[in-house]
Design brief:
It is built from two helices and no strands. With 67 residues, the chain is mostly helical. It starts with a helix and ends in a 6-residue tail after the last helix.
Length: 67
Amino acid sequence: MSPWNLTILIIVGAVGLMVLMKLFFNRKGGRDESTSNRLMQLRVFIQAVVVGGILLVLWLMGGGRPN
């Protein structure tokens, strides 16, 4: 895996973790439900980007196929 791919996946994963923590503290504080809903949608989108990125990197690297 190239260092650029790994770096991008780590950054996107960290952003997803930050959104998840923000969602947790937002719900714990009893704040607005619409904000909580938007954060949940953003979290799901970021997780989809991370999973898609990992699958793309695996596919480009050969995905464990025999040579």
